[in-house]
Amino acid sequence: MSLTILNNVAGLEAQNSLSSTQMSLQQTLEALSTGKRINSGADDPAGLAIANGLQANVTALTQSVQNATDGVGMLQVADGALSQITTLLNSAVSLATEASTGTVSDSQRTALQAEFASIQSEITNIGQNTTYNGQAIFGSGNQLAVYMSDSSGAGTQTVTVSLGTVNDANLGFSGTTPISIASNDLSTAGDAQAALTNINGAIAGIALLRGTLGASSNQLTAASNVMNSQITNLTNAENNIMAADMGTETARLSQESILQQTGIAALQQSNQLQQSVLKLLQ
Predict the structure, then answer these.
(1) Domain housing 271
(2) Residue 171 in contact with residue 200, Cβ under 8 Å?
């Protein structure tokens, strides 16, 4: 091998190898400090695209679970209001039954009617004033539409629940006819008996409405459980792509640290080779 001083080829090779080692060491240190295998698009372009898509899915599903939870909360408020109406209707049954018997005087029926009128008024108040998040729950055309999605068109569903108007003239339906106790009174035994029939129908109508709301609540809960499972699986998939294998990265750190030291030593040696030419001039 001839001795030359024009170019230090060995030094250049050592410098290139050292530079490559330094870059690899920097990437390894970044992976260890962040816990991520992919810290930039250059690390794994395809993997980053897939992971970002999975993150979007998880984000949408997490909010969808919250949407479903809020929907269940609203239905629970509605059910609570209807439960109170049922309690009032049961009180009305007692009043109508008492007013139907011949042992009750007209003045006593007047008192019973006053109490029945207050029940009718309170039922209407409950229907008008029950709210969730500042919005009236019951009203003409009112619907609860719970939107759930994984951010893709195929993974989207909306659960719609019709709530409708609830007052003393709308207490469920008999076929397509609203059940009403608004025009009933307990002024006479005959009126009280007619009122009792309508009140019993209203109790059945409210029970049917509560059953519908309960079924919708169960549907939302089931959808929420499925989405929580999806979140777990998608998070695991995203983790498999993005997360660094700490054991592998630690081993790589040791290897690259040694290569860095040997690279520096090799560069020093390559510089010393050219200095040996000076001995020929002595």
Answers:
(1) 9-35+244-281
(2) no
Report the CATH number at residue 135.
1.20.1330.10
Helix axes 9-34, 246-275, angle to 10 degrees: 160
How far apart CA 121 and CA 100 sit, in angstroms, is: 21
Confidence of residue 4 (pLDDT cuts 50, 70, 90): low
3-class SS of residue 60: helix
Instruction: Indicate the pLDDT class of residue 71, thresholds 50, 70 and 90.
Output: very high
Q: How many independent structural domains does the chain possess?
A: 2
Residue 115 clears pLDDT 80, i.e. is over it: yes
Let me know whether 28 and 140 are in one domain: no
Vertex 281: Cα angle to 275 and 282 (nearest 5): 100
39 vs 68, more confident: 68
C-beta atoms surrounding 256 within 10 Å: 21
Residue 26 in 3-state DSSP?
Answer: helix
Q: Closest by alpha carbon to 55, among 245, 246, 237, 244?
A: 237
Together in a domain, 205 and 69? yes
Query: What residues contact 263, with CB distance under 8 A and at least 6 apart?
Result: 14, 17, 18, 21
pLDDT digits (tens, 9 = 90+) for 134-167: 999 998 888 999 999 998 878 899 999 999 999 9
Tens of pLDDT, residues 193-228: 999 999 999 999 999 999 999 999 999 999 999 999
Phi and psi for 6 in degrees, rounded to 5? -65, -45
- Rounded CA-CA distance 253/29 in Å is 7
Tell the residue number behind the tokens 């998040």, with chain if given.
133
What pTM did the predictor assign? Answer: 0.79
Instruction: Report H helices in the chain.
Output: 9-34, 45-100, 106-129, 189-242, 246-275
